[in-house]
Predict the 3D structure of the following.
Amino acid sequence: MLGELTPRLLSVALISGRDTSMLAQLMPVKGLRLIGNHGLEEWRDGRPAAIPAVQPYLPALARARRAIERLPELRLPGVELEVKLAIVSVHFRNAGDPTGTGRALKTVLEPIVSGCGLTLHAARLVWEVWPPVPVDKGAAVRRLRDELQPQGIIYIGDDVPDAAAFEALAAMLDVVTLAVGVRSAEVAAETFSACDLVLGGQPEVHGLLRRLLEHAMQIPPP
C-alpha cells in the first residue's frame, strides 16, 4: 500500500521509534522517507545518521547502556534491552507483571539516566533513554513541514510518543492537517485527545490508506 502511495504523494514518511536501519529492512519501499528514534535520526544516502544535535551525546548513551546492562533487573523474565543509534530502550511488554516490572525498572533507571545527563521517557510498555535534545515526533513533523511545504498533512499514530505529533499538527494554521489516532488497550485514551479521528485498529488504518490511495490515483502525480 505504501509502495503505491509513495510515488503519488509529495512525500510519504515513516516516523518511528525504531532505528532506520531496521525500518529499511522492514519497509523496503522506494522513495519512502525513513525517520527513526522518534526524529533523532534519518536514513540518508543508504545509511542511518543521527541528527547533528544528537552527536555530542552518543558517548553518554554508550555509558548509560553499559550501566543498564549490569542491572540485575535487566534479567527479570520478559525484560529486554534494545540498543538503537540514538536511544537505549528497556522493554517489559512480555513480563508477567508489566505494571510492577515497569515501576521497578523506573526506580533503577532514573539515577543512571540522570547521572549520564540523559532523559528517561515512557512509551508503550518500554522505558527509553534519550539525549536531552528538544526532538520528538512533533519536531520531526514540523521539520518535514518546513522542508516540503505541503498543502496538507495526514499523520497516523498509535503510541504515546505520537501525541507530540498530534499536538504539533493541531498548532499548524498554515496547512490542512488530519491527525489520526489508533486505539490500543496498552495506551491511555488521553494520548489521542488532539486527534481529529480515532480508529479502532489496524484494519481501519488499512481502510483509510486504501481510500487515500483511491483518491490519489485520480490526480496527476506530483
Remarks:
- The helical segments are 2-5, 20-26, 58-69, 98-115, 137-148, 162-170, 202-216.
- The CA atoms of residues 14 and 53 lie 21 Å apart.
- Residues 2-51+135-216 form a domain with the Rossmann fold fold (CATH 3.40.50.1000).
